[in-house]
Amino acid sequence: MLPSAVPTGLVAFASAVGVAGVVATTVPAPASPPATLAVVGSWVWPVEPPRVLREFEHVGRYEAGHRGVDLAASPGQPVAAVEGGTVTFAGPVAGREVVVVLHADGLRTTYEPLAPLVSSGDGVRAGQPLGTLSGPAHCATDCLHLGLRDGDRYLDPLGRLRAAAPVLLPLGRP
Known about the structure:
Helices cover 4% and strands 40% of the residues. The chain is mainly β.
C-alpha cells in the first residue's frame, strides 16, 4: 500500500514488511494512517506488530532507570509517528540516531535508534514514517526505544497508546 501524500524526502510504505524507497519529490498523502498500523485513540503504534519488550520504569529525576518503552522491531523496519506534530530534532545523540517530534499538546516523543527520513522543521501526521530502525540498539535484541516527555518530566508512552483501547461491558451496564 503506497501512501498518497508524503512530504519531500520521506519514504512510502509498500507494506508492513518494508520500505518502497526514498522519494525526492512530494507524493500524494493518505487520508488516514496506512491500514497496517493499529490506531488507538489519536495515537498509532510506531511499529507493527506492537510487542513490548521492556516497559517504562517510574524513577526519580536523577535516578538511573528506563525512561521509555522498548518495542520489538527489525533493522530496516519503518517507524511511524505516534501522533501528528513537528520534527524538532533528527540526528545523532551519543552514537545513536534519534528523531524528536513535538505535538500540539506540548508533549514530545522520541524514537531511537532511527535512520531518519525527516528533518527538523518537518510537519508529520500520525502514522507517517519518520525513518527506519537502525542500530545500535540499547536493548539486548533489536528494538525501538519510544520516549515521551512533558518538559523535563518523563511519562509512560504506553499510557497514551493503551488509553483509548475499547472496553466491552456486559449488557445492561453503563
